[in-house]
TrEMBL record:
GO molecular function, one term: GTP binding
Nucleotide-binding recorded as keyword: yes
Keywords: Nucleotide-binding
Lineage: Eukaryota, Viridiplantae, Streptophyta, Embryophyta, Tracheophyta
SUPFAM superfamilies: P-loop containing nucleoside triphosphate hydrolases
Name of the molecule in the record: Ras-related protein Rab5-like
InterPro entries registered for this protein in UniProt: P-loop_NTPase, Small_GTP-bd, Small_GTPase
Pfam families: Ras
GO BP annotations listed: vesicle-mediated transport
GO CC terms in record: endosome
PANTHER family the UniProt entry points to: PTHR47978
Species the sequence originates in: Spinacia oleracea (Spinach)
UniProt KW Nucleotide-binding keyword: yes
Amino acid sequence: MGTKNIQAKLVLLGDMGTGKTSLVLRFVKGKFFDYQESTIGAAFFTEVLSLDESIVKLDIWDTAGQERYQSLAPMYYRGAAAAVVVYDITSMESFGKAKRWIQELQRQASPRMFTALVGNKADLDEKREVDNEEAEEYAKENELKFFETSAKTAQNVNELFYEIAKTMARTC
Ligand code: GDP
Ligand code: MG
């Protein structure tokens, strides 16, 4: 069987400061930047992932600070095959914002869009405000994949992006 080549657009959503840019940089560059300004972020990355029978090129769209206004231009997620909605496990407020983004996706985006809910900063467990089980339950009810990640320690970061790539290979 030949190799299948796929290209898919992935968008990151979630409150400012939850670690969207850090997750992308951890995945793409293998690094964590401690004092990164939350408004500074290259907005676009391309990463090629080799799977068993396919090669998936992910076009990753990161916001460059627009998320503070709560409403990203619809063109931001238009045509996206996958979305990652990020909250910070140390911020209940950011979990509330994540739920709002998910509602917005359910209203506006294609119902076929693959969506993952991600609780980032899992290394800061001692400051945790969002219960793991509660978030997992919410994800299940809304048919979302769920991960707790840390851009700092790299926990679950490759797993997240490979899960997306595998799903793209199956469905695109
Ligand atoms: P964004 O606004 O969602 O893009 O968030 P950033 O990626 O800019 O991260 C905001 C701040 O949180 C930065 O100071 C990061 O260094 C920090 N940060 C991001 N991810 C993690 C993480 O997994 N663990 C910890 N401890 N800090 C993180
Ligand atoms: Mg950012």
